[in-house]
TrEMBL record:
GO BP term (any one): ribosomal small subunit assembly
Organism: Aequorivita vitellina
Domain Ribosome maturation factor RimP N-terminal intervals: 20-75
UniProt keyword annotations, A-Z: Cytoplasm, Ribosome biogenesis
GO (cellular component) term, any one: cytosol
Stated role: Required for maturation of 30S ribosomal subunits.
InterPro entries: Ribosome_maturation_RimP, RimP_C, RimP_C_sf, RimP_N, RimP_N_sf
Subcellular location: Cytoplasm
Domain Ribosome maturation factor RimP C-terminal: from-to ranges: 79-154
Keyword match Transcription: no
Domain of life of the native organism: Bacteria
Protein name: Ribosome maturation factor RimP
């Protein structure tokens, strides 16, 4: 009952700010509500406050004893939705597939089904000794991706 009420309030709050989207909603046995958001343009503190107020002010504390935590998806959190890939085009991703393949490169494209990475690699020359630098590209369906993280560079 509480989960449905919170989900409805959350849906209403997200309809007011279409650039935000839900990553995770978790409600523990002791009614600790944890909402993780992301946004096409990032998530501000004001965004979290607005969503928090929308939920908190519309839940009856007499009926439910709860705690509420609304936060943005952390930088170290893996990408889970195609919408997150789209907002990170141009950034470097590290991807591990279900076949244990590992890729690290610039995210150049993202659709509803897959993402495309480009990177440079050193490979042996086709003839003779030494190595040459080549451009590589891989298009990975989201269904094959076990984990994808944005690499932070300083």
């Amino acid at each position: 009952m509480m989960r449905e009420k919170v989900a409805q309030l959350l849906k209403s709050a997200l309809e007011e700010n279409k650039s935000l989207f839900l990553i995770d909603l978790n409600i523990s046995e002791d009614n600790q509500i944890r909402v993780i958001l992301d946004g096409d343009k990032g998530v501000t503190v004001d965004d979290c406050i607005a969503v928090s107020r929308q939920i908190e002010h519309n839940l009856d504390r007499e009926e439910y004893d709860f705690s509420l935590e609304v936060m943005s998806a952390g930088v170290s959190e893996p990408l889970t939705l195609p919408r997150q890939y789209k907002k990170n085009i141009g950034r470097t991703l590290k991807i591990k597939t279900k076949n244990n393949e590992k890729f690290e490169g610039e995210l150049t494209a993202a659709t509803h089904e897959s993402c495309t990475l480009k990177w440079t690699a050193r490979e042996p020359k086709p003839v003779g000794k030494g190595k040459i630098t080549v451009q590589k590209e891989a298009t990975l369906p989201y269904t094959d991706i076990m984990e994808a993280k944005v690499m932070i560079t300083f």
